[in-house]
Design brief:
Elements (H helix, E strand, L loop, with lengths): L6 H17 L6 E2 L1 H17 L6 H4 L4 E7 L5 H9 L17 H7 L5 E8 L5 E8 L9 H5 L6
Parallel strand pairs: 1-3
Antiparallel strand pairs: 2-4, 3-4
Helix pairs in contact: 1-4
């Protein structure tokens, strides 16, 4: 299968997350080796099936997870920018989970401390990117969005 997420790719994804997190006044994330290896394994699994779907680990709440697919080798900044662009659909007046803003809220979730990044290339040259977050954001509990998804500072 394709080569794993390079250190450079992971750092680019991390830096873009942290630039955005700073805008929202929340602490930076750190890369975690264990999350990296889980994200990498899952990216490779996705690349082999070529089906973009969330992992059982994220479904049962063990980690937060963002996924991205592209038909080409996507740069780390572009992946993170695309996730963040969902901010345009997020209502800070009416906070909470919605399927159209889940990538954005996972990125800037205040209480998340660590992230891992995986990337794998499928046989057709398309790439799958997996980001994992710990502790997971997007926790669907009342009040959690107000405390964790803060509007960008002017």
């Amino acid at each position: 299968m394709g080569k794993s997420a390079s250190k450079q790719f992971a750092e680019e994804v991390l830096k873009t997350h942290n630039d955005y997190r700073k805008k929202h006044g929340v602490p930076p994330l750190k890369i975690c080796k264990a999350l990296n290896s889980g994200a990498q394994q899952y990216a490779e699994a996705l690349a082999s099936t070529r089906v973009l779907k969330h992992s059982p680990e994220s479904a049962n709440g063990k980690c937060g997870e963002n996924l991205a697919w592209a038909s080409y080798d996507q740069p780390g900044k572009e992946v993170a920018d695309r996730w963040y662009s969902e901010i345009k659909n997020y209502s800070f007046q009416n906070p909470g989970f919605s399927s159209g803003t889940g990538h954005f809220t996972a990125m800037i979730w205040k209480n998340t401390k660590k992230m891992g990044v995986g990337k794998a290339t499928a046989s057709d040259g398309s790439t799958f990117v997996v980001a994992r977050y710990d502790p997971p954001g997007n926790v669907v509990n009342p009040g959690y969005y107000e405390q964790n998804v803060l509007p960008p500072k002017k």
